[in-house]
TrEMBL record:
<dbReference type="GO" id="GO:0009311">
    <property type="term" value="P:oligosaccharide metabolic process"/>
</dbReference>
<dbReference type="Pfam" id="PF00777">
    <property type="entry name" value="Glyco_transf_29"/>
</dbReference>
<keyword id="KW-0325">Glycoprotein</keyword>
<keyword id="KW-0808">Transferase</keyword>
<keyword id="KW-1015">Disulfide bond</keyword>
<dbReference type="GO" id="GO:0006665">
    <property type="term" value="P:sphingolipid metabolic process"/>
</dbReference>
<keyword id="KW-0472">Membrane</keyword>
<comment type="pathway">
    <text>Lipid metabolism; sphingolipid metabolism.</text>
</comment>
<dbReference type="InterPro" id="IPR038578">
    <property type="entry name" value="GT29-like_sf"/>
</dbReference>
<keyword id="KW-0746">Sphingolipid metabolism</keyword>
<dbReference type="GO" id="GO:0006491">
    <property type="term" value="P:N-glycan processing"/>
</dbReference>
<feature type="transmembrane region" description="Helical">
    <location>
        <begin position="12"/>
        <end position="30"/>
    </location>
</feature>
<dbReference type="GO" id="GO:0000139">
    <property type="term" value="C:Golgi membrane"/>
</dbReference>
<feature type="disulfide bond">
    <location>
        <begin position="119"/>
        <end position="268"/>
    </location>
</feature>
<keyword id="KW-0333">Golgi apparatus</keyword>
<keyword id="KW-0443">Lipid metabolism</keyword>
<comment type="similarity">
    <text>Belongs to the glycosyltransferase 29 family.</text>
</comment>
Amino acid sequence: MFVRCPRSKLSVWAALCVLVLCWLYIYPVYRLPSDKEIVNEVLRQGQEWKKNQTGIHLFRNLLKVCCDPRKMFAVTKENSPLGKVIWYDGELFHSRTVNNDTYPLFVQETPLQAPLKRCAVVGNGGVLKRSGCGRDIDGADFILRCNLPPLSKEYTEDVGTRTHLVTANPSIIEKRFQNLLWSRKAFVDGMRAYGASYIYMPAFSMKPGTEPSLRAYHALADSGSSQTLLFANPDFLRSVGGFWKARGIHAKRLSTGLFLASLALGLCEDVDLYGFWPFSVDLEERPISHHYYDNVLPFSGFHAMPEEFLQLWQLHKSGILRMHIGTCPSAPA
Ligand SMILES: *[C@@H]1O[C@H](CO)[C@@H](O)[C@H](O)[C@H]1NC(C)=O
Ligand SMILES: *[C@@H]1O[C@H](CO)[C@@H](O)[C@H](O)[C@H]1NC(C)=O
């Protein structure tokens, strides 16, 4: 026997509405252009590019207001004094208080004080293969790379050899170096490829990432390495995430490449991007591998690479940064 009660019916409808709104917020209904449409759009634009000094200043100011990259990108003694509670950006309600164990590991203040002239941000896309962009990349004043990419001889022509900052995901420490619980030699030797660069680790993003990051710090310090380990500041990662979310990126988490591009846009006069091409074909519609060094696909749904690409492409078209897709002009024929 059903008794009709308009009041409860109303609240069911209200609940449904809220659900639908939440759903739309998380999975907005809009259509991303297909890979082919994006390829065509990039081909239409061609090599045409003109620097937009006003746009560069405007964008740098936007980033300064939201995220203050210069002060905030790393955890420092200045922005994270003893007793400060660091809230993880990749976990709900997980924090760690800066204490006498961790505080001494932080740099005093953010390095990279001086204005940087031309920065090259190198993504690891398969489009770099046979690009001949190595010389172009090595000619930059500050070179940022993602996730400890291989820089061995066979790749030099395409990706260059110099590095000033390289990110290292704690999961790599776990997978490639047995979490540094056994030998640290392989790790320390492997890091030599990056010269005297900064190693940038998101140690306070996910709970399981902290211990491997701290071990990586000690492994480098104990070996007398000339490299400086910087811990990514979760406040910075969160604010940059919010900045791009407001501009329409709906991923759970930004890719490392977009974090680095944001950092470069906040710090450098000129920003060149290489290897940012998340599609399975190149501009001549030849199939390409996922990375320049392998074809291992990531989990789907975690990052929104085509969406990120379109944002960066927009900045390319307005002359705020320069994307290099395909071969570099200085490439040997
Ligand atoms: C330069 O950048 C500004 C800010 O993004 C933009 O409004 C303007 O259209 C750009 N100019 C050109 C020529 O693209
Ligand atoms: C931390 O180290 C400082 C200086 O070495 C010392 O004065 C302070 O008592 C220590 N604090 C704790 C909680 O151990």
